[in-house]
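Q: I have 498 residues here and want to know how they pack in 3D. Can you give me a structure?
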Amino acid sequence: MERQNRMPGMLVIFGGTGDLTHRKLMPALYNLCMDGLLPERFTVVAVGRRDKTYEQYLGEVYKSLEQYSRNRITAACWERLKSAIRYRRMDLEDLSGYKQLADWLNELHPEGAADRIYYLAVAPEHFETIVAGLKAGHMAESGGRHSKLVIEKPFGRVLITAQKLNSRLLEVFPEENIYRIDHYLGKEMIQNIMVLRFCNLVFESLWSSRYIDNIQISLCEQQGVGTRGGYYEQSGAMRDMVQNHVFQVLSLVAMEPPASLATEAIRAEKVKAIQAIAPMTPERLATDVVFGQYGRGVVNGQSVPAYREEDKVAPDSMNETFVALKLHIDNFRWAGTPFYIRTGKRMKKSFAHIVVQFKALPDVLYFKEEGFRQEPNRLVIRIQPDTGVKFMFNTRDFGAHKGIVTTKMDTCYACPAQGNTPEAYERLLYDVLRGDATLFSRWDEVEASWRLADSIIAHKESACCYPNYAAGTMGPAAADALLERDGRRWWDETEGLD
């Protein structure tokens, strides 16, 4: 779907008292207000199960803005947002209440249901019930036009549950009005991948197996599961990170140039990249997949518990907190170039980056001489915590009589010169308001990701003994061996890429 000129007049948030609303959505709305990007006539309806007065709810929102907004609170902008907010208490599982909600929304917003966004900021078990309630209350369509639905991950637990959920959504909303949100795609450098590739001949002309040795995607977290043990027991690293965040990032790195910048042209190339990932055969599952679970360890000088000792985690849990994969994309551009993936919790550092390692030159001329060690050229796309692009290349060591050293060209986007840049949810919410679905997953992308993920998740049942890596390290030894047997190694922010 291409961008719509008409912006909706109402955002209805189911889960209005939840953590996501307070930490991300309300601050995002406030910052959009600060930037003058909210529609002039706009209402925000928070629907929650807790019994609160309007004044109590506004007070909680204000505290959330004080804690999480990137901009300081001004009286004018707070007054603007405050006047737009409404709170409605409701049992989300009671379908009879949706007709009453519909009547109330119609009084607040007589323009009609088609000018609304429904945001499901709730646990996945509520998705189908809420959508059924929207259908029962006739809240999804008016005047021949549909409202928009924004749905958070996880989108299903396996392929068959994802397919079932999607069929329920399509009974109420057309595909072009469903926005499956992945906050990773709102990050600055994720959005910049296409610009780097398709606006720079020096990169795009080399962007293939002819010149690239391997590509590494690392999404590493120093934090443990914390208070999310109950959720994580149902998801694990495969469902929480790989099936969505990792595969979405990979699709942007590996996709072919789209025919245009139209939403569907970009999404079509993304799904082709995911569909081109080689199936995980039993042989490859045995050699190219590594699972891990953290044990006790030391992080920043503090002893931390093992995953099995975390709150709401089973003492004999076989759930993975780390995944490393070696993937191949079977198409003309990428044949022969492996993609190495890793993501995990309680690792040595928190960082997310993409490393494009170019092929080495023949060991002749300079590298033939004793003592001259060749380091491969590398393009490092830093996603977080710092945001930028770095290119590593070889040059003469001017501090010595002879020698070659690796140096870098570095750009920083999270620096004072760039100002106070928007956060992921701000960009994604603004895209929903504008009707731009480019950074949201289309169903065939989700389906293709689940087909690949399902085979890997099924293999997990035969995983090794846990725990198999200490908190504060870079994961299990088998993850290093995954690259070492190919004569490669992981490139880490902790190994001189700073």
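Q: Anything worth noting?
A: DSSP finds 14 helices and 20 strands in the chain. The radius of gyration is 24 Å.
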